Amino acid sequence: MPEMPEVQGLVDFLNHRIVGLSITRARVVSIAALKTYDPPVEDLEEATVVSVSRHGKFIDIATTEAHLIFHLAKAGWLRWHESLPTAPIKPSGRSPLALRVGFDDASGFDLTEAGTKKSLAISVVRLPTDVPGIARLGPDPLDPAFTIDVLEAIVTARRTQIKGVLRDQSIIAGIGNAYSDEILHAARVSPYALASSLNSEEIAVLFRAITETLTDASAAGAGRPPADLKDAKRRGMQVHGRRGEVCPVCGDTVRSVFFADNSLEYCPTCQTGGKLLADRRLSRILK
């Protein structure tokens, strides 16, 4: 799933590439992906791109007529074309293509989504806050206003697992499954630790882990074209997606806990005092 650093990489690329261009084509291929009807998608055609920005994991292309906003969800991606294909699009339930946008210099991009579970979301709105997911976002962890005090207020008020707190977009915007694993590993905190159980020193360490992990990952993707961003993400991971590999910090084996549709990765030595966290599918959790 694309998370904040990859989304920021896409934003940086698009800002450099499409600001000032006019949209000549905006074609929705997957009707299920389009979440709005007013303004119509057709209003984007002949509009000029003013800016590209990020709200959590939402990408916002602001034009002179409306905002084109999309959330890539779990399996969505942006495919850039220096020369947009001119062949007619043939809608198909099996096609990964959800949206095609073209510009007046002949370039453009496709939004695609792999797999059968479709959750990519596209909106055309007058204001970004017209998108419900944006309206309820929590603070951005790379915003200067996000301080240790802000994090402490968030953490101490919640008697829920810290992994869930980091992933909840209404609490902190932009962090997903992968980077929450990385952050907790860097902070040496168990994913099952209750947020409210963390003391001030642990919260300070967690704050540094959040800001440094996301800043470093964003820097690793800076200046890369969309096609390279996913590989940059994978190369930077210490534990996420590395089940069975050696922890680069302590040499222990990275372990996984599996859920219905995803998993988390952690290092027992670094994060749980050597204890193994039981597979959630077996309903056995070791605290």
TrEMBL record:
InterPro entries reported in the protein's UniProt record: FPG_cat, FPG_N, H2TH_FPG, Ribosomal_uS13-like_H2TH, Znf_DNA_glyclase/AP_lyase, Znf_FPG/IleRS
EC code(s) of this entry: 3.2.2.23, 4.2.99.18
Gene Ontology biological-process annotations: base-excision repair
Residue stretches making up the FPG-type domain: 238-272
Chemical reaction(s) catalysed: Hydrolysis of DNA containing ring-opened 7-methylguanine residues, releasing 2,6-diamino-4-hydroxy-5-(N-methyl)formamidopyrimidine
Cofactor: Zn(2+)
Keywords for this protein: DNA damage, DNA repair, DNA-binding, Glycosidase, Hydrolase, Lyase, Metal-binding, Multifunctional enzyme, Zinc, Zinc-finger
Xref: Gene3D superfamilies: 1.10.8.50, MutM-like, N-terminal
SMART domains: Fapy_DNA_glyco, H2TH
Record bears the keyword Metal-binding: yes
Nucleotidyltransferase listed as a keyword: no
Sequence ranges assigned to domain Formamidopyrimidine-DNA glycosylase catalytic in this UniProt record: 2-93
GO MF entry, a single one: damaged DNA binding
PANTHER family: FORMAMIDOPYRIMIDINE-DNA GLYCOSYLASE
Family: Belongs to the FPG family.
The protein's name in its UniProt record: Formamidopyrimidine-DNA glycosylase
Origin organism lineage: Bacteria, Bacillati, Actinomycetota, Actinomycetes, Micrococcales
